[in-house]
Specification:
Length: 176
């Protein structure tokens, strides 16, 4: 349990770059589960200049260990529109991100590259080559839709002025 938490924080520390001005982490409350008992809660996303960080809580309710990555480049974020992929950053010592049975952890997962500012939605794919339905798999496949708030100058400009850039563009005014 502690190994993955430590790994997640080490990976984040190795890839960590100061945030650009105006870019703030976005809170999320997205839950997903697999029939084998794996549960994942994504609590936030932070688009940094060289990486994208997901804050997560993961519980392995399965009796055996599970892997969050069953093949190189098997776990990634996919941005829509466009389908750009951002692969998870792992340690050579534990590239499969193994979680022991009946354990839980909380930490950050780092993905290489900043998700584009024009991305409207992300899909977190875990174990792209895994099994989505087998209750006994140690390599569970999950796809989790993550809604995004706009990023970049338009988003920070609207937040600073109190206006809604999308409503302004549509000719609507936001009431105070």
């Amino acid at each position: 349990m502690h190994r993955l938490v430590a790994l997640a924080f080490v990976v984040c520390a190795l890839w960590s770059v100061p945030r650009s001005a105006g870019a703030e982490p976005q809170p999320l409350d997205v839950h997903a589960s697999h029939p084998n008992g794996l549960q994942i809660e994504v609590t936030g996303i932070d688009r940094q200049p060289m990486q994208t960080i997901l804050s997560v809580r993961i519980a392995n309710g399965f009796r055996n260990p599970v892997k969050l990555q069953n093949a190189q480049q098997g776990t990634y974020l996919e941005a829509q529109p466009g389908g750009a992929r951002y692969f998870i950053a792992t340690s050579p010592a534990d590239w499969q991100l193994r979680i022991d049975g009946q354990t839980a952890l909380e930490g950050d997962l780092a993905f290489i590259g900043r998700v584009r500012d024009d991305a409207e939605e992300l899909k977190l794919v875990i174990n792209a080559e895994g099994d989505a339905e087998d209750t006994n798999t140690g390599e569970p496949r999950l796809e989790i839709a993550l809604p995004l708030q706009p990023a970049g100058p338009a988003a920070t400009e609207g937040a600073a002025t109190g206006s809604d850039p999308a409503a302004d563009a549509a000719g609507q005014k936001k009431s105070p």
